[in-house]
Amino acid sequence: MSDPLRLQATIRDAVRSAPSAGAALERAVTLLAEGCPHFTWTGIYLLEGDELVLGPFVGTPSPHVRIPLGRGICGAAATQKAAIIVDDVNADPRYLACSLETKSEIVVPIMLGDRVLGEIDVDSDQPAAFGRRDQALLEGVAEALAGRLAAPPDVS
Ligand code: SME
């Protein structure tokens, strides 16, 4: 990640100008994956009832396409309404494995006020790959996505 502030601005612009909320989600995961070489798997889950449902992603297909709120690091982040960084996924009993190569993970909720709309989930094949810069980047992207997910559909 060469310049996280610039990357965040680029992604926020792309999210705002995407023709639909679905396109905004696609653009966000694509630009994050392209801009951050340590992001091995980058995806978005959307909350439907009490389950997180996998949306667009870049990386190997995950077996976890629906995650109940009580399960996984993803479920924990949505329940706590806060970002979670795990330096060593194999040492975390909450971890639901997506790939044997994954070593670390960051999950950042997409919030509208106090309401969880979904989350951005990123895995890395490098141990302890994520820090405050990644969290700040993903929180900025999540804020822009929340604005798009909350907006009424364009009926023009
Ligand atoms: N590792 C996540 C599951 C999703 S996969 O990483 C894509 C978890 O523990 O919730």
Q: Would you give an account of this structure?
A:
- This protein has 156 residues and is of the alpha+beta class.
- It has a single domain, classed as 2-Layer Sandwich (Beta-Lactamase), CATH 3.30.450.40.
- The chain has helices spanning 4-17, 21-35, 72-80, 132-150, and strands at residues 41-48, 51-58, 66-68, 84-86, 104-112, 115-124.
- The chain has a 6-stranded antiparallel beta sheet with strand order 3-2-1-6-5-4.
- A hairpin with a 2-residue loop joins strand 5 and strand 6 (115-124).
- The relative contact order is 0.20.
- Bound molecules: methionine sulfoxide.
Low-confidence stretches: none
How much helix is in the residues? 25-40%
Order of adjacent strands in the largest pleated sheet: 3-2-1-6-5-4
Query: What fraction of the residues are assigned to beta strands by DSSP?
Result: 25-35%
Short recap of the structure:
The protein has 156 residues and is of the alpha+beta class.
What order do the helices and strands come in, and which of them pair?
Layout (H helix, E strand, L loop, with lengths): L3 H14 L3 H15 L5 E8 L2 E8 L7 E3 L3 H9 L3 E3 L17 E9 L2 E10 L7 H19 L6
Antiparallel strand pairs: 1-2, 1-6, 2-3, 4-5, 5-6
Helix pairs in contact: 1-2, 1-4, 2-4
